[in-house]
C-alpha cells in the first residue's frame, strides 16, 4: 500500500487489479468490487463509490429471488458479507475463467497464464529451496502464518523461517486462516501494517 499512498500524496490515481492475466494462482478475490473495498480499508479512504445497476446489497440475488430484501446499512463487514455481496451472476470459479466481468481476450489470457504457470514456472520452483537459497536476507521479514494451511506447505515455511537470518523477523499466526491470510484476516493485517510494520520499517514517519 506504500505505492498507493505515494500516488495519493502526489495527486495521482492508482489503478489496482489482481494479477490474473499472468499469475492465476494469485487470484484470491476474483472481482473488483470486493477488491476495491479491501484497498479502501487499507488506505483508510474516506469514501468508496461503486457503479452498479442495483440499488445496493440484498439478502439474495433480486433478479432470481423476488423475496430478496434490501439491506440499507451494513455496520460491520464480516466474511459472510463478502459472500452475500458476490452474487451468483459473477460466474466466479477457482481460476476466474468464468467471471462474467472478463472479456474473451482476458479469459484467454487467464488460460495462457495457467498453462505458463504449470509448464514454465512450477518446474523452476521445484529446484528452489529457501532453506538453502534464502537462508540470509538483509531486509526485515514479516510472515503471515495461516494455521489451517496445508501441512506440506506450512511445515516447510515454518522450517525456513526458523533458520532465516535477517535484521528483523516476525511471524503473525492466525488459527482460522489458511492460504490467503492477508484477505482472510484483512482487518488484523491492516492493524499489523499500521501498528507494527510501518513503525519498524519507517520509524521517522
Q: N-to-C SSE series?
A: HHEEHHHEHEHH
Structural class: mainly alpha
Question: Unreliable runs, pLDDT <50, ≥5 residues?
Answer: none
- The total of helices stands at 8
Largest β sheet strand count, sense and barrel closure: 2 strands, antiparallel
Provide structural commentary.
This protein is mainly α and about 200 residues long. The chain has two domains: about 1-125, no CATH class; about 130-200, no CATH class. Helices cover about 40% and strands about 10% of the residues. It is built from eight helices and four strands; from the N terminus they run ααββαααβαβαα. The chain has helices spanning about 1-10, 30-40, 80-85, 105-125, 130-135, 150-165, 180-185, 185-200; strands spanning about 55-60, 70, 140-145, 170-175. The strands form two sheets. The protein has a two-stranded antiparallel ribbon with strand order 1-2. A two-stranded parallel ribbon has the order 3-4. The chain is globular, with a radius of gyration of 20 Å. The mean pLDDT is about 80.
Amino acid at each position: 500500500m506504500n505505492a498507493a499512498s505515494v500516488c495519493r500524496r502526489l495527486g495521482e490515481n492508482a489503478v489496482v487489479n489482481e494479477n490474473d492475466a499472468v499469475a492465476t494462482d494469485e487470484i484470491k478475490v476474483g472481482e473488483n468490487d470486493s477488491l476495491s473495498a479491501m484497498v479502501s480499508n487499507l488506505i483508510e479512504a474516506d469514501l468508496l463509490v461503486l457503479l452498479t445497476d442495483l440499488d445496493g446489497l440484498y439478502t439474495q440475488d433480486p433478479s432470481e429471488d423476488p423475496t430478496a430484501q434490501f439491506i440499507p446499512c451494513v455496520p460491520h463487514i464480516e466474511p459472510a458479507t463478502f459472500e452475500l455481496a458476490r452474487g451468483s451472476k459473477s460466474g466466479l470459479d477457482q481460476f476466474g475463467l468464468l467471471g462474467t466481468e472478463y472479456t474473451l481476450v482476458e479469459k484467454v489470457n487467464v488460460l495462457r497464464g495457467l498453462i505458463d504457470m504449470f509448464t514454465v514456472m512450477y518446474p523452476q520452483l521445484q529446484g528452489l529451496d529457501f532453506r538453502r537459497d534464502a537462508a540470509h536476507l538483509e531486509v526485515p521479514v514479516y510472515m503471515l502464518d495461516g494455521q489451517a494451511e496445508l501441512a506440506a506447505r506450512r511445515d516447510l515455511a515454518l522450517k525456513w523461517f526458523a533458520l532465516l537470518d535477517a535484521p528483523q523477523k516476525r511471524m503473525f499466526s492466525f488459527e482460522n486462516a489458511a492460504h490467503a491470510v492477508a484477505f482472510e484476516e484483512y482487518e488484523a493485517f491492516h492493524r499489523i501494517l499500521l501498528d507494527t510494520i510501518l513503525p519498524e520499517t519507517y520509524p521517522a514517519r
